[in-house]
Amino acid sequence: MAKTCAELMAGLDCTILGNSQEAVEGLAYRSDKVKPGDAFFCIVGLAVDGHSFAQDAIDRGAKVLVVERKVYLADATDVTEIVVADTRKAMAQAAANFYDHPSRAFQLVGVTGTNGKTTTTYLVEHIARVAGRRTGVIGTVGNSIGDVHEKSEHTTPESPDLARILARMRDASCDVVAMEVSSHALDLKRTWAVDFAVTAFTNLTQDHLDYHHTFEDYFEAKALLFSRDYPAKRVISVNDKWGRELWRRCSERGDAVITTGMDSSAQIYPVVVELGPRSTTVELEVRGQRYRFSYPLVGRFNVENVMTAFGIGLALGFEPEVIVKALADVPAPPGRLQRVEAAADGGVSVFVDYAHTPDALEKAISSVQALSEGRTIVVFGCGGDRDAGKRSIMGRAAQAADFAVVTSDNPRSEDPLAIIADITSGMEEGKGNFAVCPDRREAIASAIRMARPGDCILVAGKGHEDYQLVGGKTLSFDDRKVAAEELEAAFLTSNGGE
C-alpha cells in the first residue's frame, strides 16, 4: 500500500515543498519507529517537540516530513516537507486517507464517559453478535477482531494505529465495531476523520484532571464526540448535569438522540430493579414499551450500562426483542465486578473491579454491599503519575465499606508510600476502619484473613490488568489470580485440604 503526498493530504489545507508525487509507504510519529519510505509527522507534544527528531527520521529513511514549520536540515535536499497548521489533525486525516477511510465500511460505535465504557462496548458487541453481525472491539481491555483478541497500549490508539486497526476490521468483514473513546484521544485528535454511526455518553466524574485541569475542560473534551465534527446518532445518559447538557446541545442541533436514565424523564429507564448475587432482573420502559429480563451482571451501576447498550442497539437498528435476548446471556467483561472463583472460599465472596475513580469506587462498594449478608471489605490504591487530586477523595469514598485496606496500585515512578499518604489524608483516623498494607498481595491476603463467612471483599483499581507498574518495571500481577490463590491458601488449608 502506498499513497502519493497529494493523495495522502487530500482534504487538508497544506503547502507541499518538494515532490507532491513522492510515494509514501507508511506513517510514523516516533522517529525510532520510522521505516524507509515513511512520512514522519512532527508532533508538538506536551513534553517534546517532534520537529527536534526530524533529522533522526530522515536518517532512518523518511522521505516526507509533515511539519508545522519548515525545518532546515543539512541532509534534507531530497526530502519533501508538507507544512500544515496542526500536525495532529493532519496525521489523523492522512491516516484515514492512507487506509482508504476504513470506518466507513461498517457501523462504528464510539462510547465515552468516565465509567462504564468497557462494559458498554462489550455489551454492544454481544448484542451485535446475537443479531448475526461480525464484530470488533477497541478499548482498555484490548482489541478484538471477530474471535481474535489482542492487547492494547491505549484505551484509544494514536490515529495511524487506530486507522490500521480499523482497516484490519474492514478487511475482516466486520459489520459493527464498538470503541471506547477517551477524553485524551478526543483532545489530541486521535479520532479526527473517523466516521461514527453512533456516539454514546455514560457519565462524568472526577478523573484525568492532571491533564484537563478543570471539570469543564474535561467535559468539553468528551463533548467533542457529540459536536458537528462527529455527526452520528446519539445515546446519552441524562443521570448527571453533564449528560443533560449534552442532550440539550444535540437536541438543539436536531440530532437523533436516545436518552437513558434512572427516572421517567429518560426514554429508557428502569421500572423494576432486582439485584442478586450473580444476576440482575430489570423491567425497562423503552419508548413506551416494557421489557422484563434477567442478565448475568451484578450491581446497580450495571443497570445504567445495560440501558446505554440497549439504546445503542436500537440506534444500530436492532429489534428490542433481539437486544433482550442478547443481554440475557451476556458474558461479564474481564475485571468488571468479576467474581473470583476458587477451589475453596470459606463462604467469603471476592469481587475484582477496575474502579479507579471516586465515583466508580463508591458505586462498586455499594453494589457489593447489596450482595453481602455480612461485612464489606475493600482493598484499593491509586496509580502514580496520575491525577493526584482524586487520591484523598478515593480515601473518603472507601470508608463507605466496613473496612478498607489501602495498598499500592500502579505506583509507576512515584513512591508508593507517598501515594498511600495522599489517600489516607482523606480518611478519618478516628473511625478505625482502615489499615495500610503497601504490598498488594499481602493486602489481599490480610483482607481474606479478616473476613468471615458471608462477608464480601472488593479488590478495586486494576480489574483486568495482569501486571503492576513499579518504578521502571512491569511485574506480573493479576488481582483475580492472586485472590484465588490467597482464598485457597486460607481455606483449603483450614479445611484440611478439601
TrEMBL record:
Keywords of the record: ATP-binding, Cell cycle, Cell division, Cell shape, Cell wall biogenesis/degradation, Cytoplasm, Ligase, Magnesium, Nucleotide-binding, Peptidoglycan synthesis
EC number(s) per entry: 6.3.2.13
Coiled coil regions, renumbered to chain: none
Segments forming domain Mur ligase C-terminal: 335-463
N6-carboxylysine PTM positions: K222
Ranges spanned by the short sequence motif Meso-diaminopimelate recognition motif, renumbered to the chain: 409-412
Catalyzed reactions per annotation: UDP-N-acetyl-alpha-D-muramoyl-L-alanyl-D-glutamate + meso-2,6-diaminopimelate + ATP = UDP-N-acetyl-alpha-D-muramoyl-L-alanyl-gamma-D-glutamyl-meso-2,6-diaminopimelate + ADP + phosphate + H(+)
Domain of life per record: Bacteria
Any one Gene Ontology molecular-function term assigned to this protein's record: ATP binding
Pfam family, one: Mur_ligase
Domain spans labelled Mur ligase N-terminal catalytic: 24-99
Sites where the protein binds meso-2,6-diaminopimelate: R386, D409, N410, P411, R412, G461, E465
Cellular component GO terms, alphabetical: cytoplasm
Binding site for UDP-N-acetyl-alpha-D-muramoyl-L-alanyl-D-glutamate: S31, T155, T156, S182, R190
Family named by the database record: Belongs to the MurCDEF family. MurE subfamily.
Free-text function comment from the UniProt entry: Catalyzes the addition of meso-diaminopimelic acid to the nucleotide precursor UDP-N-acetylmuramoyl-L-alanyl-D-glutamate (UMAG) in the biosynthesis of bacterial cell-wall peptidoglycan.
Identification of the protein by name: UDP-N-acetylmuramoyl-L-alanyl-D-glutamate--2,6-diaminopimelate ligase
Lineage, uppermost ranks: Bacteria, Bacillati, Actinomycetota, Coriobacteriia, Coriobacteriales
